[in-house]
Amino acid sequence: MKITPLVKGIIAGTVMVGISIFLQYTGRANSSAAQNLFYVLYGGAIAWTLLDYSRSENYNPSFGSIFGQGFRCFVIVTLITVIFARVNASMHPEEKAKALKSYAEGLKKEGNRNEAEIQKMIESADKQFVTSQVYIAAFGTFIIGAAFTAAGAGLLLMRKK
Q1: What does the alpha-carbon distance between residue 24 and residue 76 come to, in Å, rounded to a whole number?
Q2: Measured between alpha carbons, how far is 14 from 26 in angstroms, rounded to an integer?
Q3: What b-and-e string marks burial along 105-138, b requiring 16 or more CB atoms within 10 Å of the CB?
Q4: Angle at 79 between CA 77 and CA 84, to 5 degrees
Q5: How far from chain centre, in Å, is Cα 126?
Q6: Angstrom distance (rounded) from CA 74 to CA 5
Q7: DSSP the chain
Q8: What is the pLDDT of residues 45-91, one digit of tens each?
Q9: C-alpha angle with apex 131: 127 to 132, nearest 5 degrees?
């Protein structure tokens, strides 16, 4: 049975979200080990996609063709990550409150704004919190996926020569 890049992306995205939920409830979501685990899972899914493609009868040893296969995988992971970021940010107002408190403390420590300016900036951040979380998830996941895929495509092309 052939597993398509789309299905590999669904598998990887689902596993990443599942682990994220687990880490969130165990209090380890913001650790560097958790971040590294996501990079390993994400890179592993892309490598799985590219290696399977390189072994298929449809393999075309061109950068565009190889990258296209990886793209089909990482764009699905990105989509799943964005949906999760949106739902998660909406479901956890305590995280938003913590982030806003930290932001306010940072602004006060800078010491170059009055209380009214700080309050206005916090209100703006409050309104944009979910959007910013989604943007960060989308942009970060997409860029990292593109980088992993480009590197993998380059390595496959060097290996075949």
Answers
A1: 22
A2: 18
A3: eebeeeeeeeeeebeeeeeebeeebbeebbeebb
A4: 95
A5: 22
A6: 8
A7: -PPPHHHHHHHHHHHHHHHHHHHHHHT-TTSHHHHHHHHHHHHHHHHHHHHHHHTSTT---SHHHHHHHHHHHHHHHHHHHHHHHHHHHHH-HHHHHHHHHHHHHHHHHH--S-HHHHHHHHHHHHHHHHHHHHHHHHHHHHHHHHHHHHHHHHHHHHHH-
A8: 999 999 999 999 999 999 999 999 999 999 999 999 999 999 988 88
A9: 95
Neighbours of 63 (CB within 10 A): 13
Give the model's pLDDT for residue 90: 86
Q: What is the pLDDT of residue 34?
A: 78
**Backbone region of residue 111 per phi and psi (left: phi > 0; alpha: psi in -120 to 50; beta: other values):** left
Enumerate residue ranges in the chain where pLDDT < 50.
Answer: none
pTM (2 d.p.)? 0.84
> Tokens 């990443």 identify what position?
16
First to last CA, the chain: 29
